[in-house]
Every structure is written in C-alpha cells, then in structure tokens.
C-alpha cells in the first residue's frame, strides 16, 4: 500500500491483477482463468497489447477483466471493446463479457457502460484485520 489519495488502494496495478487472478470467484462464482494457468491468462497477449486477465465464466464464455488501480474513465470502454472484438475473432465466439475493476468508477464510465451489453463494473476497497497474539 502507498499513502496516496486513499490508503485503501493497491499501490500497483500488477498487485491488483495478481490478487484477482488468484481470487476470481470474488467477482463471480464459477469464474476461472481462461486456461487455468497464470502464465497464459494473466497479461493475455492479443494483437500487440495485453488483456489484464482473460477468464471464463461458469458457462464457458470468455470474460475480459480490465483493471484500473485507481479511477476507471469512460475511455476504458473503448479499450475493452477492442479486446472484445479481438477475442471474438480469435476464438470464433459470438459473446464475450467485460468486467472493469477499479478503485473508483467515474460517472462517465458508469454512463457509457450502460450503453454496452455484457459489461459489469466493480469498485474495490482494501481492508486489513490485525489481531494481537
């Protein structure tokens, strides 16, 4: 953790990414890494870019998980739609879901996401419990 705007944020996006890759079920029951392997599903390479996490839901549909360690802005939708289009093309599938996880989802991103099917927004907070032994 860093002392930035909030002590409840991940310091680096890779920390958030690695935590969620190990704990996808907190986003949705039945959500798993696409391949079952961190090395292939985390930072999934696609057309010279990288999807933060490529997962599959309980029905086997691909899920693009885009992470923003602090604030998710409306331009995030464009990035996710590009990833969705490429996954549809590569995997020859008609449907790809999108999850955006950020410490704060901007009002503009909330508005834009309402116009796009199969997009789910998540805000995260961190907490720590310490007990004396």
Keywords:
4 helices; 30% strand; disordered N terminus; 29% helix; alpha/beta; 133 residues; 6 strands; six-stranded mixed β-sheet; single chain
Architecture blueprint of SSEs:
Elements: H1 13-22, E1 32-33, H2 38-41, E2 42-46, E3 49-56, E4 62-72, H3 75-91, E5 97-105, H4 107-113, E6 119-123
Parallel strand pairs: 4-5, 5-6
Antiparallel strand pairs: 1-3, 2-3, 3-4
Please outline what is shown here.
By secondary structure, the chain is α/β, with parallel strands linked by helices.
Architecture overview:
29% of the residues lie in helices and 30% in strands. With 133 residues, the protein is of the alpha/beta class. Strands 1, 2, 3, 4, 5 and 6 form a six-stranded mixed β-sheet that branches. Strand 5 (97-105), helix 4 (107-113) and strand 6 form a beta-alpha-beta unit. Mean pLDDT is 88; it is low at 1-6.
């Amino acid at each position: 953790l860093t002392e930035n705007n909030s002590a409840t944020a991940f310091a680096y996006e890779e920390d958030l990414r690695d935590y969620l890759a190990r704990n996808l079920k907190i986003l949705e029951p039945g959500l798993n890494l696409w391949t079952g392997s961190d090395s292939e599903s985390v930072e999934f390479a696609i057309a010279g870019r990288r999807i933060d996490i490529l997962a599959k839901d309980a029905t086997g549909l691909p899920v693009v998980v885009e992470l923003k360690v602090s604030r998710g802005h409306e331009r995030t939708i464009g990035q996710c739609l590009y990833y969705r289009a490429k996954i549809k093309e590569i995997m020859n599938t008609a449907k790809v879901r999108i999850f955006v996880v950020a410490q704060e989802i901007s009002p503009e991103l909330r508005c834009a996401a309402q116009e796009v099917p199969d997009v789910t927004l998540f805000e995260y907070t961190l907490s720590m419990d310490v007990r004396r032994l």
